[in-house]
Write a structure and sequence with these properties.
single chain, 211 residues, alpha/beta, seven-stranded mixed β-sheet, globular
C-alpha cells in the first residue's frame, strides 16, 4: 500500500459519521443510491458551516446522506433537493424525519435537474451541491454558479471519477467533461477553485464577488 492509499484509508477510518447519517447510508446502499463517502460528507458539512449557509440546493438527493451532512454543518439552513427518482426522494424524506429535521427545512422537487434548474432564482443560495447524472455536470455547474450568491460555494463530489481523470488514456465523454471542468475552473477569473482528493474527490468553487 502506497503512502497516498494509507493516508486515504486512515482518513476514511478516522472520520466519525453521526448515527442518523450512518443509518441513512445503510438505506442508501440497499437502494443502490451510491452516497458520498464520510470524508466527503464531513468536508461539505464544514464548508456549509463556514458559509453560514441558510439556503442550500442539492442536485441529486440519493437517499439523503449528503443532505444530512449539509444540514449537519448548517443547522439553520433550508435545503432544496432535486432528484428524478421518487424512490430516492422517499428514502430521503424518511431519513430526514428519523433525524428529526423539521419539515420546514426541507423542500423536495421531483424532476430532472436540466428542467428544474433554469426556473430557480439566481444569486439566491449559499451552497449548491452537484451530485447528479455525470453526463450533465458542466451544465449543472453553470447553473450552480448562477444560483449562488456572490461569494457562494458550488461543490462537485466524485470529481476524480475513481482516478480516471488523471489517466490520459481515459477519453470517454464523461471523463473528458470532468477533466475539462477542472481545467476551466482552475483558470477562470470568476471563481476560486480547489480540488480535494480525499474520498472520491471534491471540486470546491467559490464565486468571486466582483468578477
Amino acid at each position: 500500500m502506497g503512502e497516498y492509499d494509507a493516508s486515504a484509508r486512515f482518513v476514511m477510518e478516522a472520520t466519525v459519521e453521526p448515527e442518523h447519517i450512518a443509518r441513512a447510508r445503510a438505506h442508501a446502499l440497499e437502494l443502490g443510491a451510491a452516497p458520498v463517502s464520510p470524508p466527503i460528507g464531513a468536508q461539505i458539512a464544514v464548508l456549509a458551516a463556514a458559509a453560514n449557509a441558510l439556503n442550500i440546493v442539492e442536485i441529486g438527493t440519493g437517499a439523503g446522506v449528503s443532505g444530512l451532512w449539509l444540514l449537519h454543518g448548517a443547522p439553520r439552513a433550508v435545503l432544496t433537493t432535486i432528484d428524478s427518482e421518487p424512490e430516492h426522494l422517499a428514502a430521503a424524506r424518511q431519513a430526514f424525519a428519523q433525524a428529526k429535521v423539521p419539515a420546514a427545512r426541507t423542500r423536495f422537487i421531483t424532476g430532472r435537474a436540466a428542467t428544474v434548474l433554469p426556473r430557480m432564482n439566481e444569486a439566491s443560495y449559499d451552497v449548491v451541491l452537484i451530485d447528479a447524472d455525470p453526463e450533465g455536470v458542466i451544465d449543472y455547474v453553470e447553473h450552480g454558479l448562477r444560483l449562488v450568491r456572490p461569494g457562494g460555494i458550488v461543490l462537485v463530489p466524485r470529481v476524480t471519477r475513481g482516478g480516471a481523470v488523471a489517466d490520459p488514456v481515459k477519453r470517454d465523454a464523461v471523463t473528458t467533461a470532468y477533466r475539462t471542468l477542472i481545467h476551466e475552473t482552475q483558470s477562470s477569473p470568476a471563481v476560486i477553485a480547489a480540488i480535494s482528493t480525499s474520498g472520491e474527490g471534491l471540486l470546491q468553487l467559490t464565486t468571486v464577488a466582483d468578477a
